[in-house]
Specification:
It is a single chain. The protein is built from twelve helices and 21 strands. It is about 35% helix and about 25% strand. The model has no long low-confidence stretch (mean pLDDT about 90). By secondary structure, it is an alpha/beta fold. The protein has a six-stranded parallel beta sheet with strand order 2-1-3-4-5-6, with helices on both faces.
Amino acid sequence: MSKKLYISTYGCQMNVYDSARMADLMAPLGYTLTDKPASADMAILNTCHIREKASEKTFSELGRLRKTREGRQSRNEGDMIIAVAGCVAQAEGAEIMKRAPFVDMVFGPQSYHNLPQMVAEANRGVGHILDTDFPVEPKFDHLPKEAIDTNLSAFLTVQEGCDKFCAFCVVPYTRGAEFSRPVASIVTEAKRMIAGGTREITLLGQNVNAYHGEGADGKPVTLAGLIYQLAEIEGLERLRYTTSHPLEMTEELCKAHRDVDSLMPYLHLPVQAGSDRILAAMNRRHTADEYRRIIDKLRHYQPDLALSGDFIVGFPGETDQDFEDTLQLVRDVKYAQAYSFKYSPRPGTPAAGLESEMIDEAVKSERLARLQALLNEQQLAYNQSFVGREIDVLLEREGKREGQIVGRSPYMQSVFVPSPAHRIGRIATVIVQEGNANSLRGELKPGSVADAA
């Protein structure tokens, strides 16, 4: 009998990948996905610990699920298994069980391959299940051989964990030490995705360019080496990777942006701050000028590269001059897009203990507004620079307007074009007519591949 599975996913692309694999694991048990919690026989919150107030949001959502479960029971529609997964589960599993005793299971991001066993135990009424260990065996060895994710653009996890221990970050504590999947395992999964209709794959890792998976000869392969191998797979049109650390941006990887046609000219390379003093306090282990030199090297090999970054404003001890240094770095680099946030402490991280150096909230808000104004100005200028250009766009889905399709450019921009839905899945040449703050608009070039249908 078919059962319904509801998964609510928060945070990074890796959580999106993990949620898809959870659905794969549950499919043989008769579970199919639903986007309606009220119809679900099981609900999973796949949580993220990176954003501010992550725990509070988790408990708030759990409160809503509890009411949903009680409603199902009162209508004699059956019970609902409630589970919490992901990084909040890893960091605060015992607290979740204490504050929300109605939760049936809590498991971390390294344990979700045990999901079928945990569901069986929950159905037998064995009590609360808590699994937040870091197992010795790789979880990827236990995942189903056939995936149900056949999106045109899909994520593929190749590396997990991080050994960098940035002072503000919980990832080393929730995802564990760096682990890289063997090349053969990744190639096999990529081929399955492509056979299912995927045309663009984004390689995922908390520190993806630290990838060092085992190759066919038993020796470690770098991320660049993996990219070269994946680029040989027939049917794989586009490759991307995220998220990278400047320390691992090797010459070989920079050259791959020049040499591999399917590697898209876009890179997300977080820097977090432009002040050497703050970078040292963050334990980033590189300077602002070292970051600038990496960007220069990348643009030497791929002049058309679009750059994205992450910034934290108001890190403990940040002075006005430190912040001005960050603004200057942004002016020097010129980002196509970027993400910026006010610093907020994460329990258990070194920076959380710097209470005497915390920045006033009003100061953080003012600095963030100034930074975002500069970043938004750069992003708009970048998008407007495409007006009149021809770019290849992967047409992915229908837009909100009738007769409209939304696609993705090589530079990660959303591109809106008028076109019937049957062209979804093709790569079309688009003549850009308008560049907006967050997207491009254009027309299909007459005679292009997508216009031939």
